Amino acid sequence: MSGLVVMKQMIIIFALIMAGFFLHKRRIISSAASKDMSALVLNLCSPALIISSMFSDLTSISRKNVGLVALIGILCFAFLIILGYTLTKILRVPVSQREAYILMTVFGNLGFIGLPVASAVLGPKSMVYVIVFNFLFNVVIFTFGIMLVKKGVEGVEQSWTDIFSPGFIACILAFIIYWFNIKIPADLQSLVNYCGNACTLLSLLVIGMSLVGMNLGSVFKNKRLLLFTAIRFIAVPIALALLLKPFLPDYIMRASIVLMMSLPVANMPMMMAEQYGKETTTISEGIILSTVLSAATISLVFLFV
């Protein structure tokens, strides 16, 4: 798939994001509705999209390929953790912002943006690989991520059961359906498909609504954040694409991995930081900048896939 095709898809996605921005700006959709829509996506639509993606004919995707992507995904997350600490030194990040920059480096928006973008750009066959990365995301964010956020916070307890979010459970169910080639009744498929089909629209509208009230001017003047964005969301995924090209001839597999490494900063680290009383301004600005630029950065990266 050429970079031009990806750019066209990203323009459509960006248009939906801007639709959310203007609908909220003109108070057609309220802040309360935005919060409810976020909960709906996280707890119903996104898990349904994960499961419904397994209803397609995936017999051409071997278990060997899935295992290979899982191994590459583990290496990617390990690399991002190391990169996060390295960038805080290279960019001379103030001590108060270091945790934020590490979180922004490690955790891309694999669920809220990754699922609908992969579905639109690469099609249903990419979803098995996307689910692998979402599974690893949940494991890493509720281990390394929560450890980093809780650092220095007293009187806070975290249960290991927190990892079992609806999205994580959906990943497990989807793997079971794929691995054992389970046939789901047509009526049940239709029900899940109806819920999953709403994921793309709702998730992108919510992202657009989150931009309202933000000072985009000051965000785009933050030189450190701009340099971070260029390294993390352009240089790193392009280097990965060039590295994988000789070893992974399967385009969908290769493109899925690169896409997962190209996605903008995730919302979950910000919500965790807010929950534990940590500084959230830096992460919020990172989410805004990387999301607004994602149509351009992802299109650029895919020229090298």
Short description:
InterPro entries: Mem_transp_PIN-like, Na+/solute_symporter_sf. Keywords: Cell membrane, Membrane, Transmembrane, Transmembrane helix, Transport. The protein contains 14 helices and no strands.
Radius of gyration: 19 Å
Tally of strands: 0
Report on the biggest sheet.
none
How much helix is in the residues?
Answer: over 70%
What is the ordering of alpha helices and beta strands?
A: HHHHHHHHHHHHHH
Ends apart, CA distance between termini: 9 Å
Mean pLDDT comes to 85
Can you lay out the helices and strands and say which pair or pack?
Layout lengths: L2 H23 L5 H22 L10 H28 L7 H9 L7 H8 L5 H24 L15 H14 L6 H12 L1 H12 L5 H5 L2 H22 L6 H12 L5 H8 L5 H21 L4
Helix pairs in contact: 1-9, 1-14, 2-7, 2-8, 2-9, 3-4, 3-6, 4-14, 6-7, 6-12, 11-12, 11-14
Explain this structure to me?
- The radius of gyration is 19 Å and the shape is globular.
- The chain has 14 helices and no strands.
- Helix 1 packs across helix 9 (199-210) and helix 4 (98-106) packs parallel to helix 14 (281-301).
- By secondary structure, it is mainly alpha-helical.
- 45% of the residues are buried.
Question: What attributes does this structure have?
Answer:
mainly alpha, 14 helices, 0% strand, globular
